[in-house]
Amino acid sequence: MCRRQLRSAATASAVYSGDGLNTGSQSATLNQVVMSATLDIDASITASKYDALTDGLLVIRYLFGLTGGGLVNNALGTTATRTDPTDIKTYLDGMRPLLDVDGNGTPDALTDGLLIIRYLFGLSGDALIAGAVDLPLATRKTPGDVATYIQALMP
């Protein structure tokens, strides 16, 4: 069973011990949660690991609520290392907030899933966002904003 860590916590603080002219001080501790999930949903072991017909399809099926075989049948790459439907659902559950590509507050198959699969197919400009952005509520409405957001999920 694949158990990939989707979040890791980090803390940071600064300490100055002082010198002959200045007293020492310490900053408050900063706690930061770092999301390490990517759009490589099936954890492929190839250089072109982000694929519309595998990862994009898995995201859309997940956002439509499919589980088990309905989630993964004919949607896994030949070099996939994450293949168990339960593991894939758990992975996607952990990154669900990140799937809100248009930033309207709700990850949805017919907006966010469509944006992801279109981007993975190589669409850009108006072809990327036409009819797939929740315009009244979205915070990412332009092709550039959407592409930049999705690229951040593809390190």
Describe what this molecule looks like in 3D.
By secondary structure, this protein is α+β, with helices and mostly antiparallel strands. The chain is 35% helix and 10% strand. The protein contains six helices and four strands. The protein has helices at residues 52-63, 68-72, 85-95, 109-120, 126-129, 143-152, and strands at residues 7-12, 15-16, 25-26, 30-35. The strands form two sheets. Strands 1-4 form a two-stranded antiparallel ribbon. Strands 2-3 form a two-stranded antiparallel sheet. Helix 1 (52-63) runs antiparallel to helix 4. Mean pLDDT is 89; it is low at 1-9.
> Rg from C-alpha positions?
19 Å
Mean pLDDT, nearest integer? 89
DSSP strand content: 5-15%
Spans where pLDDT lies below 50 across 5 or more residues: 1-9
DSSP strand count: 4
How do the strands of the widest beta sheet line up side by side?
1-4
Distance between the termini: 24 Å
What's the helical proportion of residues?
A: 25-40%
Apparent shape: extended
**With helices defined by DSSP (H or I, 4 residues minimum), what is the helix count?**
6
Structural class: alpha+beta
List keywords for this structure.
155 residues, alpha+beta, two-stranded antiparallel sheet, two-stranded antiparallel ribbon, 10% strand
